[in-house]
Amino acid sequence: MKAKITANKHFAIGDIDKRIYGSFIEHLGRAVYNGIYEPTHPTADDQGFRTDVLDLVKQLNVPIVRYPGGNFVSGYNWEDGIGDKSKRPKRMELAWFSTETNEVGIDEFQEWAKRANSEVMMAVNLGTKGAQEAKDCVEYCNCDTNTYYAQLRRANGFEKPFGIKVWCLGNEMDGPWQICHKTAEEYGRLATETAKMMKWTDPSIELVACGSSGPGMKTFGDWELTVLDHTYDYVDYLSLHSYYGNRDGNTANFLARAEEMDRFIKGAAAICDAVKAKKHSKKTINLSFDEWNVWYRKSGMEAKGKNWPVAPEANEEIYNFEDALLVGCLLSTLQNNCDRVKMACLAQLVNVIAPIMTENGGKAWAQTIFYPFMYCSKYGRGTTLRPIIESENYRSKEGFDIPYLSASVVDNREKDEVVIFASNRSLDEDMELNIDLSGFEGYSLAEHVELYCDDLKAVNDKDVSRVLPVNKEVTDAASVTLKKHSWNMLRFTHTR
Ligand code: AHR
C-alpha cells in the first residue's frame, strides 16, 4: 500500500508544551510502595527510592508527575504524610481497599520528583476535604511566610518551599465511584471557592478543574458546561481522562481509538470556547489530559475483601505489542492537538497500568508501551506541523473512516531536526510512505527507529523483552517502508 505525508515548515499547529509527556504516580497497589520506594531494595538510595526505577523514569524524560491520585486523593489527608515518619498514621484507604502507611507523602515525593528530573502536579482532596485543607497544602508547599504551615514545613526540614506550580482541583468528581462524588453544581461551587483560596495563597499557581472522567460518561458535555460556568475565571485548565481497551479482540478497531481521543479533545476544547464566548471572556481555558493509557484487563479492586493489605498487586496490566502501537498513535494525537492540550499524563508510571514494572526486592524492566513514549518524549519537542495525510482508509466499528497511516510531525528548531512519528495501522500490508517536507531543504533521514513484532500479543517480562525498538538502515530515498502494524520514528537532520 502507498501513502504520503506532506508538511510545511510554515504551517504549524503549535508549540509543544513539554508537559504533554507527563505521567502519574498514585498511592495505589505497588506504585509507591515497592514501586518507586523500597528502602530494603539493593538499589535504594539514602531516602529509600529505588535507583533502578529512577534510571528507567529518567530515560522516559517525564517533565511532570501527577500525585497522589487519582481516586485515592478524594479520601486523603495530606497532613498524614508529612513530618516524623514514626508518628504517621496508618489508614484504611477506601478508594482501593488497602492500608495506607503514609511512609511516603509530599515531603518525600517532591524529593523523588527532583531526583527524577521532574516536577510535581499536585492534586487536592475535594471529596472528603475542602477549600481550607487545599489552601493549607499550598501554604505548606509553596509559601515563604512566617505562618503556621510554612513554619511546619521548615520544622520538618525543608527550609525552601517546594514550588509546586500545577494543582488539580480534585479528581474525577463526576464519577459515582469517587469518594464523596459530587454533582456538577456542587463541584463547580466547591472548585471555585477552593481555587480562590489557593490562588490568594500563591498567585503563581495554575489550576486544573475536573472535566469528565471519560467521553463515555452520560454527563459529558453538561458536566463541563456547568463546571466551567462556575470556575471559568478561576482556573487555567480543564482535565480530560480516557482509557482504551481491546475488549472484543478487534485490533483494527482498537488502533482506531486514537481518533476517538482526537474527537474527545476537540469536543472538550469546543465546550471551553463556548463558555468563553458566553462569558465574553478574553481568557482561553486549555486542556490537561491528565489520565490516558490502555487499561481494560485489571480493575484495580484486587485488594477488596482481602483484609486491607499494604501495597497489594493491583492494576498490574501487562502490556502487549498492540498496546504499544495504540500508545504510539495516541501520542501522535496529543502532539497534533498541542495548541490546546498543554499537559498530559500517561497513567500511570510504575507497576500500576504502567510502562515500568518491578519485582519486590528484584528487577525493574520496561513494558512494551515504554518505547513509543520514550521516543516521543525525547524527540517530540518543538513545534507540531500540520500533517497532510494521504492514505487508504478502513471503516471502524463505530462507522468512522480511519486512515491506515497515523502520524505527527515535529519541527525541533533548536536541534535543527524534524521528526515524524508514524504508525502503519494495516494488519497485513507494508506501507510505502512518501515524505514531502517543504521548507526543510538540506535535511536528510538520519535515523529510522521501528517498533515491530510479528506477534501482536507479545509482551516483555523481567527476563525476556520480545518487543524492542530497532534501528533500521537509512537511505536517501524519498520514501520509507513502514512494516504492517508497526510504529516508527523518522528523524531528519540538517546536513549542510
Ligand atoms: O489511574 C487509575 C484510576 O483511574 C485513577 O485513580 C482514577 O482517577 C481513574 O478512574
Instruction: Write down the overall geometry.
Output: globular
Indicate the percent of residues in helices.
10-25%
Mean pLDDT: 97
Radius of gyration: 22 Å
Which structural class should the secondary elements be placed in? Answer: alpha/beta
Low-confidence stretches: none
Ligand species: alpha-L-arabinofuranose
> How do the strands of the widest beta sheet line up side by side?
3-4-7-8-9-10-11-12
Largest beta-sheet characterization: 8 strands, parallel, barrel
Provide a descriptive summary of the structure in words.
There is one protein chain. A hairpin with a 5-residue loop joins β13 (356-358) and β14 (364-366). Helices cover 24% and strands 26% of the residues. α3 (131-142) packs parallel to α5 (184-201), α6 crosses α8 (257-278) and α8 (257-278) runs parallel beside α9 (321-336). The protein is globular and about 65 Å long. It is of the alpha/beta class. The mean pLDDT is 97. The two termini are 33 Å apart. The chain has an 8-stranded parallel beta barrel with strand order 3-4-7-8-9-10-11-12, surrounded by 6 helices. A 7-stranded antiparallel beta sheet has the order 2-15-19-20-25-22-23, with helices on one face. Bound molecules: alpha-L-arabinofuranose. The site of alpha-L-arabinofuranose has 10 residues, from loops. Alpha-L-arabinofuranose (AHR) is lined by residues 26, 69-71, 171-172, 213, 291, 347-348.
